From TrEMBL:
The keyword Plastid does not apply. Residues 23-104 form the Lipoyl-binding domain. Gene3D superfamilies: 2.40.50.100. GO terms for biological process: glycine decarboxylation via glycine cleavage system; protein lipoylation. This is Glycine cleavage system H protein. The lineage of its organism: Bacteria, Pseudomonadati, Pseudomonadota, Betaproteobacteria, Nitrosomonadales. The keyword Nucleotide-binding does not apply. It comes from the Bacteria. GO terms for cellular component: cytosol; glycine cleavage complex. The modification N6-lipoyllysine is found at residue 64. The glycine cleavage system is composed of four proteins: P, T, L and H. Belongs to the GcvH family. Transmembrane segments: none annotated.
Length: 126
C-alpha cells in the first residue's frame, strides 16, 4: 500500500496535496480505494461549495458499498475532476493522481492539523 510522504492525510482516508498557488487537491487514499473495491461513481462537492473541515461533502460508491467524503480542511471548492464523472475507476488505477476536488483553504494553517504519512500509517496499523 502506498502512502506518499509529500501528502497530508485525514483519519477519514483522504489525501491532500498542496499546490504552488496555495490551493489543495484532495482525493481518497490507496487504503480507501482498496477497501472500497471497484469504484463506480464519484459525487464531488459542487464548485463554489464552502466546505467545513471534517464535514461530509461528497460520496464515492463502489460495487461493494458507498463512502462519504469528509472535507479535509475548510474552504471553497474551485474545481472538480471532471474525468472521474465518466471514468471513476481512475481512482482504482492511480489513486494519488485521480484527485476528486480542488479547494482554496479559508485557513491555510488547517493543513497542519492533518496527518503526515507516518501518523497515517500508524492509524492504519491500529
Amino acid at each position: 500500500m502506498k502512502i506518499p510522504a509529500e501528502l497530508k492525510y485525514t483519519a477519514e482516508h483522504l489525501w491532500v496535496k498542496a499546490q504552488d498557488d496555495g490551493t489543495y487537491l484532495a482525493g481518497i487514499t490507496d487504503y480507501a480505494q482498496d477497501l472500497l473495491g471497484d469504484i463506480v461513481y464519484v459525487e464531488a462537492p459542487a464548485v463554489g461549495t464552502e466546505l467545513s473541515a471534517g464535514k461530509p461533502c461528497g460520496l464515492v460508491e463502489s460495487v461493494k458499498t458507498g463512502s462519504d467524503l469528509h472535507a479535509p480542511v475548510s474552504g471553497a471548492v474551485i474545481a472538480i475532476n471532471e474525468e472521474l464523472q465518466g471514468t471513476p475507476e481512475l481512482i482504482n488505477e492511480n489513486t494519488y493522481e485521480a484527485w476528486i476536488f480542488k479547494l482554496t483553504p479559508s485557513s491555510p494553517n488547517e493543513i497542519n492539523d492533518l496527518l503526515d504519512a507516518e501518523a497515517y500509517q500508524k492509524i492504519l496499523g491500529e
